[in-house]
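User: structure tokens for this one?
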Amino acid sequence: MINATDIRKGVIIKMDGELYQVLTYHHATPGNLRGFVQTKLRNLKTGTQKDYRFRSTDRVEKAFLDTHQMSYLYADSDHFYFMNTETYEQVSLGPEALGDAVSYLKPETVIAVDFYDGKPVGVELPAAVELLVVETDPAMKNATVSNVTKPAKLETGLVVQVPPFVEEGDIIKVNTDAGTYISRC
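Assistant:
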């Protein structure tokens, strides 16, 4: 059991006999009221989403998962395929199980895949990934203002805001939790 205040994005919890993945969370302590954690949860069996508010004193059962290192292979119209790096077994996951992780997957990327009762239920992304910039506005010469950004489309289709000096063909590091630019590689 974990405290409700320890809930984070991507954590899988067990509630009412069902598994739920935390899509978003917000810990709030409004004025003189008691604190709470507002979450958006996705049922891993049905795929339905619901908003749920935990009191800060609530305890939540965290699901114990088996994690295996797997290499992302490819995607077809409705599934993403992964191969276990030790046993070479292949499994597939639907886009609803991956959520936002789809925007950070490129072939041969090794990530952790979570299993519950022998079935894949989700993935754990690294804190940052390196992706190629495939489309952006040209670099601006003598740009000295540090808070100016421009959109850049990456090889996976993800669009992030980048500094003006980033050009097409650059490889950048992106934070997978917030989907933001970290640095140029």
